[in-house]
Amino acid sequence: MKYCLHLTLLFLSSIIYAQNLPGTKLKIKKFHGDIVLDGVLDENAWKEADVADDWYQNFPVDSLPSPFQTEARMTYNDEFLYVSFVCYDDDTPDVVSTLRRDFSYAINDNVSFIFGPYNDRLNGYFFNVTAIGAQREGTVSSGGNGENAFNIYWDNKWYSKVVRYEDKWIAELAIPFKSFKYKSDVKEWNVTFDRLDKKRNIKSAWVRTPRQFYTGTFAYAGQLVWEGPIPKASSNISLIPYISGGAFEDREVDPTDSSTELQTGFDAKVSISPSMNLDLTVNPDFSQIEVDEQILNLSRFEFRFPERRQFFLENSDLFDNAGFDSARPFFSRRIGIIQDSTGIPQKVPIMYGARLSGTINEKWRLGVMNMHTKKMLELGLPAQNYTVATVQRMFHEQSSFSMTFVNKESLGVTESDSLKYYHPSIFGRPTLEDRLRPNTYNRVLDADLVLRSKDNRWYHSSFLAQSFDNRNKAKTMSGSAFFQYSDRSLLANLGAFFVDKNFNAEVGYVPGSMVYPGQMGYYSEVAYKIYPENNSLLYSGPQARINDTYLPNGNLVDREFAIGYVFDFKNSANLTFDLAHIFQQLTFDFNPVNNVKSRKFLEGEEYRWNTISASYQSNTVKKMNFLLNSTYGGFYNGTNLNISGQLDMRFQPYVNIAMRFDYNNLKLDEDYGEAELFLLGPKLDVTFTDKLFFTGYYQYNNLTDNMNLNARFQWRYKPASDFYIVYTENYFPSNFTSKNRALVFKLTYWINL
């Protein structure tokens, strides 16, 4: 008995000893010479390097070492930072969905290097490679906490090689010091590594990380200790010129309008200091970006489509995190995209722009962006200038205070220009003196506070903002406060917000601004996880949420209360059930089916209904998997059956096929209308090589009476240099008659000066 107890204690002590806790040191030594990226690791630099080993699981459990271990090593010379991984494995086929750069992390066997070169546990970079060598890189913000903390839209030059063996695969990375910003006088960096073994659904990390947190969070990172001097950060200038052109045809006008276009411009990246970068763009062109995924929006609120333009996505966390969901002072899609008088989005050409971003020192960050758009008389718009600036002060280990200023200026507008600049954002309703006054500026000043405990369990976020313009002088503020606690079993949060009647963030996103004449409310969510001793079930547990919205007079106008239960399986499948009760008192006349032909629900009317929902995500390890959502219940004075989801098929790593669908069967009383609404979106993604890609996307939406075809070919002929050909066409669904179409090309070339 004593012998067994001794063995047990010895085993437990060895396990505890093997755990790498936050702050664990990893030394990095300089070597002289070159490393050949060949997946062999026979250079002396690798043999002498400190080893980051003893990796622990984060998923499906966080209490055991990974059954297939990983080793990471680091070294450097004057030009490159080198990282190598030995990922022990067997001959089980890898899960690798694509050869495309910026692959989806969640569905690929891959390994990651995450580091914070400012040693502030808030900001940094990550570099990933899959088991067949596809690359992915980006920036880390907010300490790696939250879905938006890892931004994959930062691109730069780096090199890698992956070689597969019977019992392992080895990856070597060479990252030029010129490719990222860092402080030469900082002797330690935050560093961690993680690995997703997707074929076994095991996620592991060098530093043991509780499973409720991302493995890339800096709260659970080690310290990279430089034994020698870090190469001095040097200035770097990169120029990325482009040339683009296309042929366009609009068949919705008579006679048909045909045109061609040829234009050029450039982006530039200039290192102002070792940790501060200036990005410039002149006559930017975004014709190569993927089209938005269409939606069936049956709500009263504007849908927030994601930003896809590269210039706005890089280093965007400082601006995008200002405010909260109830009111965001800045939303980059307000620049260069505007709704015309009929509500249809239109492109407004951008003439030039600049963004200065980076860290001033280990406690201060700065971001400033200025963009200038052209005059568009056909849309009733003058030339406009946009500025957003944020300064952030970090304190403690993962907390910060930020101030953000947003400014929009309409240039050259006078009181006599109401017919020339007729867009609703420029001239509003007449004043009491029956004069139309132009709204030539809109400004928002915002303050944000973020508090986070060292172990990430406690989190607080609050903001207070005020808007300024020509029209409104009172009731122009907005704010919120949010508190959250999370551990491996319990998640609980509570938030409150208010938006004054005249708070006007024209360059922001305030979803209730066109629905409520001012609003205030609260929201809360509670979820509890139960971990059974079960070979297939990871956890299950109840969840509940409530969201109330009131008018400034205290009148309740919106309430949604839901309770549910979730089952999360070890094979990555997920099943959720929800029961919801909805109450609405309408603040304006509205019909979700057809605002013109159908009878409207009237302002002041009250509606209550209940719904039941189920959602199932199948095992994503399988080459064919699916997501299926279904909701049935009341909808105002009628009913609605919704079935939506997506079917995915992988012919890895070369072909991915997806079918997105959304079906609504609306049946409203009397002459309020009824409709069957369909949205279908098949998508084909082909990676011929790691440099040649094709994407074809078709979308049918009978709510907007439109079919859209978008086909894009990309050739990455040199690192960070691309050639694109894009074809897009819109059709009438009834007879497949073309509405409009375009064929464009774009060539970019990255030059280091």
Automatic annotation (TrEMBL):
<feature type="signal peptide">
    <location>
        <begin position="1"/>
        <end position="18"/>
    </location>
</feature>
<protein>
    <submittedName>
        <fullName>Hydrolase</fullName>
    </submittedName>
</protein>
<dbReference type="Pfam" id="PF19313">
    <property type="entry name" value="DUF5916"/>
</dbReference>
<feature type="domain" description="DUF5916">
    <location>
        <begin position="237"/>
        <end position="376"/>
    </location>
</feature>
<dbReference type="GO" id="GO:0016787">
    <property type="term" value="F:hydrolase activity"/>
</dbReference>
<keyword id="KW-0732">Signal</keyword>
<keyword id="KW-0378">Hydrolase</keyword>
<dbReference type="InterPro" id="IPR045670">
    <property type="entry name" value="DUF5916"/>
</dbReference>
